[in-house]
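Input.
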Amino acid sequence: MWMKFGVIGMLCWLISVAPASAQFKKGEPEGPKVGKSQVTRWRVGVEVTASGGACLGGNGYISVPADWPEQEVNIVDEDVSSEMKIGYSTIAGGVKVMNVKMGRLAAGAKAKAIAIFEVRRGTILPPEDTDRYVLPEVNKLSRELRQYLSHSPLIESRHPKIRDLAKRIGADKEKAWDKVEAIYDWVRENVKYQNGPIKGALAALKDGTGDCEELTSLFIAICRAADIPARTVWVPGHCYPEFYLCDEEGAGHWFPCQAAGTREFGGITETRPVLQKGDNIRPPIKAKGQNERRRYLDFDMIITGKVRPQVRSYREQVAE
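Output.
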């Protein structure tokens, strides 16, 4: 099922920041830098109640915050029932998950696997000198980066209409930064913000409406069609894109922008925890017959046997 994030989470988010400053990446002083940071705690996990009778077991996963250059994550507490076993793994380089394995659960019993994550998330400052950035050479990109030039679920970068836009938008721009910014401005000017069910880049292009999902998807699709790596960043209640350029020394850097809402290009004041980077993820477990890749890797639990217990997932901010 496609995930959908409304604008309410954006409007209700209460930001309390503390000053901090650091390089975005060691050894890359010309790339993005981290500005102010915010520390929050998040309760993430799963709870299973065998309300319909004894449960034979199950396997599941839920995405959790992970370390990124702008984000530091620590697990400060875990509450795991004896019927549960957990572990952590990173998938496709862009999403970290808690893997949950549940043994037999007696009728009426409840089992849980909950962790408390402390997240320090920093804002990202735009670079002062943008003229030094160039488009990456596609034939020199790593396999990991090449995935951000291909299509993803509802990011139809190979469609003829998207490819045509990629040839036209920013064609008069000499600087790489200006070309990407032209794509950014075109999307914001031609897609009216309208909250609704997720529909993707091509649909937003056809009807000229969409929310953070569609604005992000269309920007990414056009960038990819123009051989500019781009990807989705998922935070609670919202998403935004990042694009990839190289400096004059050949080092690559990811830059964020706010596709929906306040205009922020090359830097971002967002401090909600990053849950995922990327948008074409193969789930670690899947039901028989399922083989699709997913835009977001949120939560899934596959139960063994015919009895279907009550399953609840958690991802919520908690007081420190």
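Residues 129-266 form a domain with the C8orf32 fold fold (CATH 3.10.620.30).
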